[in-house]
Amino acid sequence: MTETAKLPESYANLINVPRTSLLIDGRFQSSQSGKTFDSINPVTEEVIAQVAEGDAADIDLAVIAATNALQEGPWGKMDARERGRLMMKWADLIDQNQEAFARLEVLDNGKPIVEALGYDIPSAAATVRYFAGWADKLEGKTIPTSGPYFTHTRREPVGVCGLIIPWNFPLAMAAWKLGPALAAGCTTILKPAEQTPLTALWAGELALEAGIPPGVINIVPGYGETAGAALVKHPGVDKIAFTGEHTTGQIIKAATTDTMKRMTFELGGKSPNIVFDDANLDEAVDGAFGAIFLNQGQNCCAGSRAFVHESIYTEFVEKLADKASRRVIGDPFNPGTEHGPQIDRAQFDKIMQYIELGRQQGAQCVSGGQRVFDRGYFIAPTVFSEVKDDMAIATDEIFGPVLSILKFSSTDEVISRANDTQFGLSSAVWTQDIDKAYTVTEGLKAGTVWINCYNIVDPAAPFGGFKMSGLGRELGEQALDAYTETKTVTQLRK
Ligand code: ADP
């Protein structure tokens, strides 16, 4: 592992945080309680901003604002095409500020600037733009019902949407939810993750600048157990879209039974990445490497289980371990840095415990396995070989830079083992045999299968999970289903 130059003591000279208060009804404001919480930089561990801490009282205000914006404000009556035009303008403003957004994301999240500039910010703008194009294309159908009736369907906004997002891709996750919600004509209350509220707040300001009316996007930073839980329980909220841990998803699902809110969930994964002996080995190694180490492994579709055919296993492990040992780790603001810190102390501790457990349970740590630097939440890219299916590092979502490499011998066997998990988010297969690729694709129980590639996510392609990895789909045309209700209209013809 290559460390870049010494870490900075402080980012004081880079701290430039446009907005730190709640956005409700088009106005940035303090929380009702007056409380704030610290946003911590994961490299220097310094406080970079004190952010207004929303709770149930602020959620109440945000729900009133979102309801008014839908029922009385211009948004509810606006032409769909005009809605799309405002969204396009918002996407343009995000794009025009890509560099500054990327720096703010790095400051808040710690991800390498190359990733923030290469994926997070442009993909957020692209997602808003993609959904803007849908605003005037949400069509109903005419239905050939029996009798003297004319029946058609209308697609109407589901209403006020509570959007609860995680800290791993902060602005991109906001866009995944706000994009389809706004295209469908809904109004929203976004609760960013407590670790990373800053880019969403600034994007909210730019949405107002683009002309999206007050109350359409409300943003209430705060903790999950207070602000998040209040949003989930609120009777004035029609839908919750959640991305986060599957255990939080279970709590939220249980908490919405009485209000029968519409729900979509994008939860965790333990995604299999299957490498056959006829794969282009170097491409498969590179692919498996990016699959797990992108964003320090803090990725719900991380390819955390590499299943490698026994005849190439040793060579694959050697190449991958060597590559991991050369990953450039250090100051994420340095454009040469490939690997930054984990998000916070809690995640750091959890990942280090899993690494310890991997060793205790008999897996062989062939690269990494230790903390890097004596400050900041850095963990070396870690590769385990000789992993067995029932080891904790092969069954649990670690959400960190820890790859388990498992050995297989036949196609049927690997499909069955790949599916032997409660999750089903993503998967990949590496082979030059198209028949084999499709046999595996059909066999895998996962919302996404990549063939000879990994982590290719596009705003136009649906994304979501089988089994414990989620409910419903985000992105693509299918995402709009979750933000619309179908109304059937039948007229008697005399
Ligand atoms: P992670 O462990 O990756 O932070 P979480 O599932 O805890 O994942 O968090 C994802 C999002 O869910 C965050 O915005 C968090 O504040 C929120 N959250 C956590 N607990 C709850 C809850 N009980 N109700 C609603 N939202 C919650």
Mean pLDDT across all amino acids: 97
Cα-based radius of gyration, to the nearest Å? 23 Å
Q: What is the overall silhouette? A: globular
Q: List unreliable stretches of 5+ residues.
A: none
The distinct ligands, each listed once, are:
adenosine-5'-diphosphate
Distance between the termini: 79 Å
Number of helices: 15
Helix content percent band: 25-40%
Q: Which class of secondary structure composition applies to the elements?
A: alpha/beta
Spatial arrangement of strands, main beta sheet: 16-17-18-14-13-19-20
Largest sheet: 7 strands, mixed
Q: How does this structure look, described?
A:
This protein is an alpha/beta fold. It contains 15 helices and 22 strands. It has helices spanning about 55-70, 75, 80-95, 100-110, 115-130, 170-185, 200-210, 225-235, 245-255, 280-295, 315-325, 345-360, 390-395, 410-420, 435-445, and strands at about 1-5, 20-25, 25-30, 35-40, 45-50, 140-145, 150-155, 160-165, 185-190, 215-220, 240-245, 260-265, 270-275, 305-310, 330, 365, 380-385, 400-410, 430, 450, 470, 485-490. The strands form six sheets. A seven-stranded mixed beta sheet has the order 16-17-18-14-13-19-20, sandwiched between helices. A six-stranded mixed beta sheet has the order 10-9-8-11-12-21, with helices on both faces. α3 runs antiparallel to α5 (about 115-130), α4 packs across α5 and α5 (about 115-130) packs parallel to α6. It starts with a strand and ends with a strand. Adenosine-5'-diphosphate binds next to α8 and α9.
